[in-house]
Amino acid sequence: MKSTKRSDKKPTKVALARLLKIHDQLNAAARSHRRVNCTTLAEGLNTTAKTIQRDICYLRDQLKLPIEYDYGARSFSYRDADTPFPLGHNLSQDERIALVVARQSLDVFEGVNFGAELRSAFDKITGGLLGESGDSMEQSLDRFISVRTPGASRVDAKVFRAVRRALLDRRELRIEYQAKGRPAFTPRRLHPLHLACIANRWVLVALDADKSEPRTYILARCRNPIVTQTTFQRPADFDPAAHLGTSFGVLTGRGTVIVKLRISVEGAHHVLERNWHPTQRETNLPGGAVEVTFALSDLNDITRWILGFGSDCEVLEPAELRATIAAEGTKMAQRNAP
């Protein structure tokens, strides 16, 4: 077998236990400054030299382990002694399944660098482990389990990189921001405090250099970022959980308002089947309807959520939210009239 020939084709049958034994033998050979060949390994593992050759190709080409080949002796060794095996070799089947399902949930990280980085980290942790059938965990599980994240936020990768750098280095960030309902972008000087993904949308909590209180900025509305050399002191009393904890979505407000809704039997399952907010409380009503309450700091995001129910939702409290929904419903009826 020539070491210069790469094999991107995955083996038809790879046993993890055998790979670990080959790995141990290669490390032992490197420690004693010797090499091992396929025939010797095959005899010790009760298999064929061809199988060992395929396994070594897999270790080198797929798991990227530093295997060196001696043409003269036609034998192998690790370049360095005590080469570690990919971390995921000791994961249980349930743990690997959980990782594969989590890997499918990365749409929300696309466009912000984290998508590629998390996939790379996943492959390093699991080592692309194969089962006896020859399929990788991800390939085989894709046929049975899948995860979709509709509505994943669109973020300019340049914006995300700049925000991440300014956040970690505590540097002032200059951006152009498009406020809700305004077509024009305006310049902002921000001191980033916290980055969060809420309901599949990336948001930045930051202090505007010209204002005194932290505000929430949606990254999809940012452009032309510049990380300056100006540093800032992070407020010692800033608590991201307290700032974001009572919002229904990405928008935050001050104080607490109790929202009480009655959902008809047709829409009750939409509430009961999901955890929409930490303060969510439900009461089952006769006939299958449900009454749900939230303790929120802002009504903007829940307004759109309520409108998604159509006539299946009635706002009981507060009065201002009920009036908003009624007015919006009237506008919708007028706009969509035949």
What does this 3D model show about the protein?
This protein is an alpha+beta fold and 338 residues long. The protein folds into four domains: 16-85, Orthogonal Bundle (Arc Repressor Mutant, subunit A); 88-141, no CATH class; 157-235; 257-333, 2-Layer Sandwich (Alpha-Beta Plaits). 35% of the residues lie in helices and 22% in strands. The chain has eleven helices and eleven strands. The chain has helices at residues 16-31, 38-45, 49-62, 93-103, 114-126, 137-141, 157-169, 240-244, 265-272, 300-307, 319-335; strands at residues 67-70, 75-78, 171-177, 186-198, 201-208, 214-218, 222-231, 257-263, 281-284, 290-296, 313-317. A five-stranded antiparallel sheet has the order 6-5-4-3-7, with helices on one face. A hairpin with a 5-residue loop joins strand 5 (201-208) and strand 6. Helix 1 (16-31) crosses helix 3 (49-62), helix 2 packs across helix 3 (49-62) and helix 4 (93-103) runs antiparallel to helix 5. Mean pLDDT is 80; it is low at 1-14 and 130-135.
Descriptors:
11 helices; four-stranded antiparallel sheet; 338 residues; Arc Repressor Mutant, subunit A; alpha+beta; disordered N terminus; 4 domains; elongated; five-stranded antiparallel sheet; single chain
